[in-house]
Design the sequence.
């Protein structure tokens, strides 16, 4: 096994594909940085501005009788009015740099908003407002910050906040990137089949070594992400590694940036192993790199094309491949809401990995492989 | 050379990957036609109830408002602008009741012009566009509404002045041709360009598998590259066939529309819309997409002969197609010369319609410049390919 | 020791190998000769278990068989097949290939350098194989197998693309390996070269292995003389057949006509030569029957 791995690394070391992939990762990090920089630093103020506009637009849906003060008026109308007032206050608080005021009004805002979801005719204005899940995440974030005495930060370019946005972005692309990267994992080997066919090792060991060497390269990518972000410490400082982020992992909770990165790393490693093994199996079955890639991508987008699948087959590992959306609690906003849990995702992906390993061990033999 | 083209083309058509691309396109076309298109819910729709509710409320207000020196300025403002506005709404309702599409189009044109004028110029923070533009998180809702209202005005003006057959489906842009137009305005160009990348990614490097077979062909490297490019181009154009299936399905359900339907085109210079015919719009799109194909294929040929790695081809293609996501920020065109980057022209339909000019505050993101940039890039890539492939010591395989 | 027991392979009803039973001993070089598509490679694939035979089994040293995946691994430690030169990693150097093979089979790393030296590969072994010529690639493939140092070595067309000097070097190497006690099975078309070092040579025909000594005696041509006539024609062949009905006469594609007759009937030579002179074919040669002659006779 070790000698196999060593030999694989000799082969991979000079493989152009890996060098290109490493360049792509660097390009991604630096590109994202320039993007973050372009997005102006007043992001939060702009967001609040648009929020207030959306509320105003929502208010136009109501008729004058809704605004009667004698108690016959529409409850939702008043709720929205109140929301708008808080949003404007928040915006003001940002502009005059009073973060505590921002937080205090934020707390009131999320409370009012939470009650709006239960009101009559809410669906009329639903698109103009954040979803229930988004509001809930905001709520626990504000509560946490209030309790812990942390003030809102608008800094997104220093090391840790930047890493957070890198990993959030990666959450959506990681599976795609790894599947493109690994789609030819065995196909490339099949081109040298007469060399490897007679190796005095079993095929499952061979596949394991191959997957492990691919995994090592993936780890290099991950290390590279950190390395490429390091220069930003020089320009923008380290930032606060303990700044809170609200997530949904089965229940709503607040974690630190560091913890978020930790979760992301665990998921990325699981997803990478999963994808590499899937590529191996599809390579043997389909004997074509692109078909492997297409099947993987179709499986990946299937839950988005047919959202009903998610609640129907909650144990489908592909529900969990986009961990940014997972942590945003996006599945809670589906027509049929499902609370996809973080740990369950790891369990399902883990089980899939074990099943695939078992399949490789039981069904694959070298002898039947043909040159492609 | 013809025999070689045939040889390459047959290989292309029997390539599992290419077949898969066509099958997937067919699947998406059907999926779109059967599942997504029927669920299309335009913001600017023909909604009699909505018009009626607005009309009656305002009518009620106008009948009851008392104007004297104590009247609140906003009330005064409303009383001033509602009469004309309501007149248009009334005309729309009457036309709908009478089933007179032409009249409806005319009244609607006036309504949009007047509404936009009121909201955008006079009604900041008082009047709003259709509330569906103000989705949570949209920082540019007003701009979106402004564009959509100007666009609709121009469109209905075109309907009123043109002689196309009008129907609710036409007004709501549901006919097959209009659906195509909407798609060109969104994901379709991306899908076509990615298909092109997939087709061209292995067209040169597949020969690595059987070099001795190909090496000896009595055709120079440069010429064989040209033929390969030609095959990839033909294959890319053939994507029209699976996509046409979706088109036919929509045409059967909602009618085909016609090639004289007006398509509004925005010009940043005049800050106004003019219309061109659907036929011309589609032609211009096809032209720019064709130039995109030229560019991508020549780029991939160049990368193929330099790096000789399929993964590199995919990366190079995707970088060009997706680069815009990295530098796109609304209004950037005003400060930066993004019209020199080929990747600024990815949204082909939006370029032709002038939407990109609007988004980027740039006068330069035009079809003409797009064709120019693509042509220049193509020529550069081909020239480099020519020089490298004709170099004495260069070996393709 | 390698033993084949009743190996039978058929593809879609056609017998490629029929009931083959044979034992190969250590320190033995076996030559397999046959036209293309007669089952040489099939036999090797069966020995490697790349192809499961329809009947029979392959038994190694102490009754080791392909009965489980574990055994397959053990057997592959003992037996290797020469890689195909088109399968080399173009972005790796020759030495890297040798290192990989050496480490895979856990062989003595010193073999790498000694093999490079013995095969005269020093000048290019550190370059990427993508730059190699066919002969260089072929030598590398051979070197890789030597470096793997397995007990049994299967080589399909090992001399392909090699010039006569290289053929000679490799032949010497084979003899050396044989002296070390390896079992080497070679499929080759270089009959005369094969004859120099092979202990046993088999022709493969109709799914069975025929030892050439048996063929000589079966055909009754053991020790026969052969007359080769240049520029033979169909008419000449017919004339000859009429004049000497008891002789076996063969017209080769090259235009050479072969006439063979038992050694002890040397007087025939005179009458044949007289006949040939009469027919304006004074140019001919007489010699012992070679393996090549036997081959053309056997497969004609």
Sequence:
């Amino acid at each position: 096994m070790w000698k196999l791995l060593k030999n694989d690394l000799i082969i991979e070391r000079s493989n152009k594909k890996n060098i290109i992939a490493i360049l792509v990762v660097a390009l991604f990090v630096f590109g994202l940085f320039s993007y973050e920089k372009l997005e102006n630093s007043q992001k939060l103020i702009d967001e609040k501005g648009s929020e207030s506009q959306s509320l105003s637009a929502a208010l136009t849906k109501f008729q004058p009788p809704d605004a009667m003060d004698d108690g016959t008026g529409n409850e939702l109308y008043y709720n929205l009015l109140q929301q708008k007032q808080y949003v404007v206050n928040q915006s003001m608080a940002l502009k005059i740099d009073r973060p505590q005021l921002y937080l205090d009004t934020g707390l009131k805002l999320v409370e009012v908003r939470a009650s709006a979801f239960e009101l009559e005719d809410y669906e009329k204005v639903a698109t103009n407002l954040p979803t229930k899940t988004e509001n809930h995440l905001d709520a626990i974030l504000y509560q946490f910050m209030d309790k812990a005495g942390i003030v809102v930060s608008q800094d997104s370019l220093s090391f840790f906040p930047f890493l957070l946005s890198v990993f959030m972005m990666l959450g959506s692309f990681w599976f795609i990137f790894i599947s493109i990267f690994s789609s030819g994992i065995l196909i490339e080997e099949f081109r040298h089949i007469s060399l490897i066919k007679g190796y005095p090792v079993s095929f499952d060991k061979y596949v394991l070594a191959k997957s492990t060497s691919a995994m090592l390269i993936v780890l290099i990518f991950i290390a590279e992400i950190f390395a490429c972000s390091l220069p930003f410490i020089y320009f923008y400082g380290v930032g606060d590694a303990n700044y809170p982020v609200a997530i949904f992992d089965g229940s709503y909770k607040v974690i630190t940036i560091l913890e978020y990165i930790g979760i992301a790393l665990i998921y990325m490693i699981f997803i990478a192993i999963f994808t590499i093994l899937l590529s191996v199996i599809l390579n043997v079955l389909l004997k074509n790199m692109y078909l492997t890639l297409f099947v993987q991508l179709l499986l990946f987008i299937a839950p988005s094309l047919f959202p009903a699948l998610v609640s129907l087959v909650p144990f489908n590992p592909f529900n969990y491949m986009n961990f940014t959306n997972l942590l945003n609690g996006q599945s809670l906003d589906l027509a049929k809401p499902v609370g996809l849990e973080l740990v369950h995702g790891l369990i399902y992906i883990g089980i899939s990995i074990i099943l695939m390993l078992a399949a490789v061990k039981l069904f694959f033999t070298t002898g039947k492989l043909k040159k492609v | 050379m013809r025999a070689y083209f045939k040889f390459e083309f047959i290989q292309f058509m029997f390539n599992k990957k290419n077949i898969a691309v066509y099958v997937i396109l067919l699947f998406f076309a059907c999926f779109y036609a059967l599942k997504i298109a029927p669920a299309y819910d335009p913001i600017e729709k023909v909604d009699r109830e909505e018009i009626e509710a607005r009309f009656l409320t305002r009518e009620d207000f106008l009948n009851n408002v008392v104007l004297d020196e104590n009247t609140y300025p906003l009330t005064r403002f409303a009383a001033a602008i509602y009469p004309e506005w309501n007149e248009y709404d009334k005309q729309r309702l009457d036309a709908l009741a009478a089933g007179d599409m032409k009249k409806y189009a005319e009244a609607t044109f006036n309504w949009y012009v007047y509404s936009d004028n009121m909201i955008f110029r006079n009604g900041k923070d008082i009047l709003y566009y259709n509330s569906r533009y103000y989705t949570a998180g949209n920082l540019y809702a007003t701009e979106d509404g402004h564009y959509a209202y100007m666009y609709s005005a121009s469109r209905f003006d075109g309907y009123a002045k043109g002689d196309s057959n009008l129907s609710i489906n036409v007004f709501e842009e549901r006919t097959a041709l209009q659906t195509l137009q909407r798609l060109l305005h969104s994901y379709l160009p991306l899908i076509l360009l990615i298909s092109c990348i997939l087709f061209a990614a292995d067209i040169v490097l597949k020969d690595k598998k059987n070099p001795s077979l190909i090496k000896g062909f009595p055709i120079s490297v440069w010429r064989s590259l040209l033929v390969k490019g030609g095959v990839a181009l033909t294959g890319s154009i053939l994507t029209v066939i699976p996509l046409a299936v979706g088109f036919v399905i929509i045409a059967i359900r909602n009618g085909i529309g016609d090639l004289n339907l007006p398509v509004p085109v925005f010009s940043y210079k005049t800050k106004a819309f003019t219309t061109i015919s659907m036929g011309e719009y589609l032609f211009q799109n096809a032209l720019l997409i064709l130039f995109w194909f030229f560019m991508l294929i020549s780029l991939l040929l160049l990368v193929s002969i330099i790096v000789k790695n399929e993964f590199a081809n995919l990366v190079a293609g995707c970088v060009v197609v997706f680069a815009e996501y990295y530098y796109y920020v609304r209004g950037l065109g005003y400060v930066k010369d993004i019209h020199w980057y080929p990747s600024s022209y990815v949204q082909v339909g939006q370029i032709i319609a002038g939407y990109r000019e609007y988004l980027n505050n740039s006068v330069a993101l035009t079809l003409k410049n797009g064709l120019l940039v693509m042509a220049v890039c193509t020529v550069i890539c081909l020239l480099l390919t020519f020089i490298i492939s004709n170099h004495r010591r260069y070996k393709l395989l | 020791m390698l033993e084949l027991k009743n190996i039978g392979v058929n593809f879609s009803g056609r017998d490629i190998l029929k009931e083959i039973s044979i034992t190969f001993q250590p320190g033995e070089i076996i030559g397999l000769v046959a036209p293309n598509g007669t089952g040489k490679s099939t036999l090797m694939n069966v020995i490697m278990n790349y192809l499961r035979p329809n009947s029979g089994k392959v038994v190694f040293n102490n009754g080791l068989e392909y009965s489980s995946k574990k055994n397959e691994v053990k057997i592959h430690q003992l037996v290797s097949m020469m890689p195909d030169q088109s399968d080399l990693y173009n972005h790796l150097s020759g030495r890297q290939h040798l290192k990989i093979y050496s480490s895979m089979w856990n062989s003595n790393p010193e073999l790498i350098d000694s093999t490079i030296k013995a095969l005269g590969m020093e000048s290019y072994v550190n370059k990427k194989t993508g730059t190699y010529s066919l002969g260089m690639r072929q030598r590398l493939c051979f070197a890789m197998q030597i470096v793997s140092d397995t007990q049994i070595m299967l080589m399909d067309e090992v001399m392909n693309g090699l010039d006569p000097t290289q053929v000679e070097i490799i032949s010497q190497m084979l003899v050396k390996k044989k002296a070390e006690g390896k079992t080497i099975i070679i499929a080759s078309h270089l009959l005369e070269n094969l004859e120099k070092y092979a202990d046993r040579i088999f022709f493969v025909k109709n799914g069975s292995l025929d030892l050439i000594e048996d063929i000589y005696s079966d055909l009754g041509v053991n020790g026969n003389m052969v007359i080769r006539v240049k520029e033979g024609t169909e008419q000449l062949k017919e004339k000859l057949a009429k004049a000497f009905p008891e002789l076996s006469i063969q017209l080769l594609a090259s235009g050479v006509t072969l006439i063979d007759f038992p050694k002890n009937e040397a007087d025939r030579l005179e009458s044949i030569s007289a006949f040939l002179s009469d027919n304006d074919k004074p140019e001919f040669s007489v010699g012992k029957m070679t393996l090549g002659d036997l081959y053309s006779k056997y497969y004609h």
About this structure: The CA atoms of residues 129 and 264 of chain C lie 55 Å apart. The two ends of chain C are 34 Å apart (CA to CA).
